Amino acid sequence: MSRLGILTSGGDAPGMNAAIRAAVKAANHHGLDVTGIQRGYQGLMEGDVRQLQFADVADFADKGGTILKTSRSLEFMEEAGRSKALRTLERLEINRLVVIGGEGSFKGAEKLHESGIQVIGIPGTIDNDLAYTDYSIGFDTTLNTVLECIGRIKDTDSSHDKTTIIEVMGRYCGDVALYSALAGGGEIISTPEQKLGFAEICSQLQERIVAGKHDNLIIVTERMYSLPELQQYIEEELHVSVRTTVLGFIQRGGNPSAFDRVLAGRMGVKAVELLLEGVSGQAVGMKENKLIHKAFRDIHAETADKQEQYQLLATLL
Ligand code: F6P
């Protein structure tokens, strides 16, 4: 019988379990046995695996994190590490693989594809930084979590006429910050795609204060600023009270939203169907609510056009 392997890699994202569940269900339906590979590529190199039946995953669609665990493996980036992984696949007679993860995970998947393993990727990352797909699994849940946190901070900011800098995740992509602000979450936003300098942030804040808005949220993507320096700069320039909140890993956990569960279900089934059709070296995505699939090599080069969203933001803020 043909055997399918499945692993999650990189940062966990809510909805990964729903994707595992869907892939296992689809594989069993088509008569494939499934091996769950634990801790991503690290576990693949070490042969850390367990057999998965649908009963093992049936109740996990609503759980955050990943039941297969995950890792960021430096060893797998090296030729020697990948040879180990290939030996595990050969020993376990796994000839088809589903990789759920972000861009780094897809790079690893592409290498396995080039070594003759049949691989399909499923985008699982809260960052939404894969331009070939409108949404990656986990992003919607994270956005909802961020909005809930923002709402709480707004309550206290408005009670004290305070300004808060909120740092959100996203790695080098501003989508978590951008969509939070589009959903009505903040007054000033700075992302890698449209980065504001300290002086520009102060000038926008000053405009709002002059207009009578004394509680303001500044949403920034991680890795862009020294937050203590930014806070101090604003306080000294504008003589206002500023606080800083880094949302951190709160954004990555939690039960997946309905949107993420449905997206994961669709993508999990599609990944298995593509493998059965003989497709390899590609990742499933979604464009205009339709499932698509694209070669890993084309995915890496693609950049997102967020012009419409940023224009809308200019009107809304
Ligand atoms: O890619 C998901 C993500 O949460 C990013 O937003 C963040 O920059 C990174 O992972 C954090 O990585 P780690 O879990 O290795 O600290």
List the helices and strands and how they pair.
Elements: E1 3-8, H1 16-29, E2 33-37, H2 40-46, E3 49-52, H3 54-57, H4 79-91, E4 96-101, H5 103-114, E5 118-123, H6 139-160, E6 163-168, H7 175-182, E7 188-190, H8 198-210, E8 216-221, H9 227-238, E9 242-246, H10 258-276, E10 282-287, E11 290-295, H11 296-301, H12 307-316
Parallel strand pairs: 1-2, 1-4, 4-5, 5-10, 6-8, 6-9, 7-8
Antiparallel strand pairs: 2-3, 10-11
The structure holds 6-O-phosphono-beta-D-fructofuranose.
The site of 6-O-phosphono-beta-D-fructofuranose has 11 residues, from loops.
What is the compact description of this entry?
By secondary structure, the chain is an alpha/beta fold. Helix content is 44%, strand content 19%.
Explain this structure to me?
- The chain has 317 residues and is α/β, with parallel strands linked by helices.
- The protein has two domains: 3-138 and 256-299, Rossmann fold (3-Layer(aba) Sandwich), CATH 3.40.50; 140-253, Rossmann fold (3-Layer(aba) Sandwich).
- It has twelve helices and eleven strands.
- It has helices at 16-29, 40-46, 54-57, 79-91, 103-114, 139-160, 175-182, 198-210, 227-238, 258-276, 296-301, 307-316; strands spanning 3-8, 33-37, 49-52, 96-101, 118-123, 163-168, 188-190, 216-221, 242-246, 282-287, 290-295.
- The strands form two sheets. A seven-stranded mixed sheet has the order 3-2-1-4-5-10-11, sandwiched between helices. A four-stranded parallel sheet has the order 7-8-6-9, with helices on both faces.
- Strand 1, helix 1 (16-29) and strand 2 (33-37) form a beta-alpha-beta unit.
- The longest helix has 22 residues, at 139-160.
- The protein starts with a strand and ends with a helix.
- The model has no long low-confidence stretch (mean pLDDT 96).
- The structure holds 6-O-phosphono-beta-D-fructofuranose (F6P).
- 6-O-phosphono-beta-D-fructofuranose is lined by residues 11, 72, 102, 125-127, 169-171, 222, 252.
- Residues 3-275 form the Phosphofructokinase domain.
- It is found in: Cytoplasm.
- One of its GO terms (biological process) is fructose 1,6-bisphosphate metabolic process.
